[in-house]
Design a protein that fits this description.
mainly alpha, two-stranded antiparallel ribbon, 12 helices, 9% strand, Transposase
């Protein structure tokens, strides 16, 4: 809708000044159909100016035929072909005409998929190594299915996190079982006594990386024989055995490169403190 003053101005310019529809629309900032509507409501049938003939008109059937056969044919190639057939114009105007006449790609139809809650699901399937069960080794697989439009509850998310954590523990447990067979008995006792099995597995894996499978297995056997079932005891046994063999501690200590870079620090014996304790009792 436009103001009544604007409609009166349109009628004045059309009847009084004899302006055509296009000039009125351009000067008043309106669309030409708006001007035609206002004139039509006033009982005026504005004359539609017929488009001027173009030098491209005689060649339009040829352009349409070529574009029908070769829809992606370039405008530059069509310009050369039309020049050979007598087209007198330039390429710019011809390019606009070809753009208007070039067949559009047919619209591709898509069907929106709508499913009821629980009617569709996404499945994830993964392998997490093998799990030692007694003397048998069983493959460990994870199967997760999420239903469409499923509302994630906090309890469900927490359960999924716990299951993934247990899967990581089983993966570490499987590695320990391959490297040190006594670790299974060690972890079983920890679980029976209410210890943190996950923390024990993580610390045993760190020792495995530091000292190797053989030393870890020997330490576990000694700890089981003494019935001192905790990770700290395993670490003490490893440190004592390495000290007896004059080996460096298993924990790598970064040292600045220089004259002390290759110095091996060996823990001193505690026998001196035992002797001092005996002297103090005399």
């Amino acid at each position: 809708m436009i103001a009544k003053e604007k409609e009166a101005e349109i009628l004045r310019l059309y009847h009084g000044e004899k302006w055509p529809v296009g000039t009125i629309a351009g000067q008043l900032g309106l669309h030409h159909t708006t001007v035609q509507r206002v004139l039509g409501q006033a009982g005026v049938d504005p004359k539609v100016v017929a488009p001027r003939p173009s030098m491209v008109d005689p060649f339009v059937p040829f352009i349409v035929e070529q574009l029908g056969k070769y829809p992606s044919l370039r405008s530059s190639r069509l310009f050369v072909m039309l020049k050979e057939r007598g087209y007198p114009g330039g390429p710019d105007h011809l390019r606009r005409v070809i753009c208007r006449l070039r067949p559009k790609k047919p619209a591709e139809a898509f069907q929106r998929l709508r499913t009821l809650p629980g009617e569709q699901a996404q499945v994830d399937w993964a392998h997490f190594g093998k799990l030692a069960i007694g003397r048998a080794r069983r493959p460990l697989w994870a199967f997760v299915m999420v239903l469409s439009q499923q509302i994630e509850q906090p309890e469900h998310i927490q359960r999924l996190v716990d299951e993934k954590r247990r899967a990581r523990e089983h993966r570490g447990l499987d590695r320990l079982a391959r490297a040190a067979r006594s670790s299974q008995a060690f972890l079983r006792v920890i679980a029976e006594r209410g210890g943190n099995v996950g923390s024990a597995i993580a610390r045993l894996l760190q020792m495995l990386d530091a000292v190797g499978a053989a030393e870890l297995e020997e330490a576990l056997v000694e700890v089981l024989e003494r019935d001192t079932i905790h990770v700290g005891a395993v670490r003490q046994v490893i440190d004592r055995r390495r000290s007896e063999r004059c080996l460096p501690p298993p924990v790598s200590i970064p040292v600045t490169r220089g004259q002390h870079a290759n110095v091996v620090v060996t823990p001193h014996s505690l026998a001196t403190y035992d002797a001092l304790k005996k002297d103090s009792t005399l």
